[in-house]
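Translate structure to sequence.
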């Protein structure tokens, strides 16, 4: 039994069906979840033409040919295509093809191994799992409780990725990935963007230079980025009038729409956690096999367990949990539970990759320098200007970017790597392999990057490390 049909839930269904188990999926909205309709897919569909145009404008001989505005209607149509026009017919066809059962409606735990489902028509079913129940209900956007916020009708990431016209002025509160990506998209679509950040900069979970380079590019594009500011209240003028944000100290900022990009909370308020001794509204703690401690039949995968709020990590956890459930269903205890075993979600903490599709792109895996130092590792950070790599200079002129690798000096392996620059997300998987594989620096010397590619950055980082 799987509660939640986003990417993590779908992967659990796929793995358990492949193992020969009968599997039921309960979904209250669209099969495919937040990622498919209101997050990863629509946001990247909006951003792809933005980044392609930015790259083209850095190529001599081509820049002048792409100087005009984006065709917003074509961009929105491209986005709509990739979301299936917010219909999940294709996902339903896939579920049918593998023989999984779909129950549309709101699902709640109903005690041990039981799930109660209330359909949109009001029908009520109580289903019993023979082996396992998996919670994959994901997260929702958090809107802070501010005076006037309800009447202001702010955007969350859902509205920001599904809007059908560009507002003249957009205020964005927050410095997260959502804030940075949506600022990039809407500024390029003709909106005047103002980003209000409580902290010192954008992308606070990455190396500081990542947020600095992204903020610099946004400012050059015309956006206003304000840091170290706090929002005290919000006021909207009438039903469709402008929105005014009141900052600490009384200063006001006005826009036509307001996007609150201020974090995520688990969708666990009304899924029956109390019926199995857990607290509604909380994140669901799990072990490294994604099983909930004290409940040998209950698992939680994806955002809801708070290990890593990323689609690809939720799918990874689902593959791990699916293998564990299949083994236990066959009467076996999972045996491959070592640090990088098939039944252990080690990558959540040791080799977590993330790509941010801003201009320039920012991509990172593993530990930042600050995180590695905090964890007690003896480390060295090696930095290099990506624009000085021949392949990067041919890719874009100028090429704004920087790279860093964090080396464990005791073992001489990589603990983390960060790349910022046009197309830098495509450098990420090589770094992920190096970190997850704990490839010695001495062996990386023999992984020769093709010339002239941007991946030559690896050679430059290694040369800088050797000195």
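Result:
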């Amino acid at each position: 039994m799987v509660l939640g049909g986003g990417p993590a839930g779908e992967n659990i269904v796929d793995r358990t069906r492949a193992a020969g188990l009968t599997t039921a999926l309960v979904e209250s909205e669209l099969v495919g979840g937040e990622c498919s309709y209101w997050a990863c897919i629509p946001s990247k569909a909006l951003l792809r033409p933005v980044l392609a145009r930015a790259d083209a404008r850095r190529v001599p001989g081509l820049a002048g040919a792409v100087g005009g505005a984006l065709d917003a209607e074509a961009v929105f149509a491209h986005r709509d295509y990739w979301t299936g026009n917010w219909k999940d017919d294709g996902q339903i066809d896939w579920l049918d093809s593998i023989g999984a059962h779909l129950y549309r409606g709101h699902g709640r735990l109903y005690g041990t191994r039981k799930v109660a489902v209330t359909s949109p028509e009001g029908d009520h079913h109580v289903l019993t799992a023979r082996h396992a129940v998996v919670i994959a209900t994901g997260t929702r956007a958090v809107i802070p409780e501010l005076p006037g916020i309800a009447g202001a009708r702010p955007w969350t990431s859902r509205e920001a990725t599904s809007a059908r016209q560009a507002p003249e002025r957009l205020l964005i509160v927050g410095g997260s990935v959502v804030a940075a990506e949506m600022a990039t998209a809407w500024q390029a679509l003709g909106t005047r963007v103002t980003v209000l950040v409580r902290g010192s900069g954008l992308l606070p979970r990455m190396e500081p230079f990542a947020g600095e380079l992204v903020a610099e590019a946004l400012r050059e594009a015309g956006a206003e980025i304000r840091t170290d500011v706090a929002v005290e209240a919000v006021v909207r003028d009438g039903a469709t009038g402008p929105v005014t944000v009141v900052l600490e100290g009384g200063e006001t900022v006005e826009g036509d729409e307001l996007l609150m990009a201020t974090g995520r909370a688990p969708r666990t308020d009304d899924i029956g956690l109390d019926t199995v001794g857990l607290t509604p509204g909380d994140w669901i703690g799990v072990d490294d096999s994604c099983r909930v401690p004290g409940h040998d039949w209950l698992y939680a995968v994806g955002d809801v367990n708070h290990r890593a709020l990323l689609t690809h990590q939720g799918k990874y956890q689902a593959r791990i949990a699916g293998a564990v459930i299949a083994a236990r269903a066959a009467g076996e205890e999972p045996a491959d539970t070592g640090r990088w075993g098939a039944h252990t979600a080690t990558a959540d903490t040791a080799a977590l990759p993330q790509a941010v599709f801003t201009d320039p792109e920012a991509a990172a895996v593993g530990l930042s320098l600050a995180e590695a130092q905090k964890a007690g590792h003896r480390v060295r950070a090696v930095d290099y200007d990506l624009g000085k790599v021949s392949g990067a200079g041919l890719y874009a002129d100028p090429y704004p970017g920087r790279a860093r690798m964090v080396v464990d000096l005791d073992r001489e392996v990589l603990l983390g790597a960060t790349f910022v620059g046009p197309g830098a997300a495509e450098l990420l998987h090589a770094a992920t392999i190096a970190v997850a594989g704990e490839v010695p620096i001495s062996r990386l010397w023999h992984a020769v990057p093709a010339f002239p590619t941007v991946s030559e950055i690896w050679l430059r980082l290694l040369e800088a490390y050797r000195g």
